[in-house]
Design a protein that fits this description.
single chain; alpha+beta; 11 strands; elongated
Length: 150
């Protein structure tokens, strides 16, 4: 009899332990892009947003040269969902990364131009990230270019 009375309590405790706390309607967006100079070792660091990482792999992916970062700067912006959008002058792509246990993992590589961007700027246009280059705007999500947004 005592076991029958104890069983519902045990099931309730197990169910509560298995549930996940989720704080919804979180906004991870940065209000403005960060333009970060790359140091001599290929690393970038932004104290304002407490982010730092090595750019060697990014430049290898873009140019097949992990040392192509010399004298360059990157542009990075975090969207409302927490994705990081990264590009730089002469990049043909915008790279979308997500956090992954102390690393940044590539979520998407968005092709922009065969000739590369000349003077890129990233703007927050929730729910989009706007890429401006040469007076032209593209509206991006982590899935790619939104062709319907004008």
């Amino acid at each position: 009899m005592k076991l029958i009375n104890f069983l519902p309590l045990l099931l309730l405790v197990i169910a509560a332990a298995c549930s996940t706390l989720k704080l919804q309607q979180a906004d991870f967006a940065w209000p403005v892009e960060s333009v970060i100079s790359i140091d001599k070792d290929g690393k970038v660091s932004d104290e304002r947003y407490s982010i730092s990482f090595d750019t060697g792999g990014l430049f290898y992916e873009e140019f097949e040269d992990s040392s192509a970062y010399a004298g360059k700067e990157i542009r990075i912006l975090r969207d409302i969902n927490g994705y990081y959008f990264i590009t730089a002058e002469k990049f043909k792509n915008v790279y979308v990364f997500q956090m992954d246990n102390g690393a940044m993992s590539l979520n998407n590589k968005i092709f922009i131009s065969e000739f590369g961007v000349e003077d890129p700027a990233l703007n927050q246009r929730t729910p989009y990230v706007e890429l401006i280059d040469g007076g032209k705007s593209l509206y991006l999500t982590n899935n790619g270019i939104d062709r319907n947004k004008k």
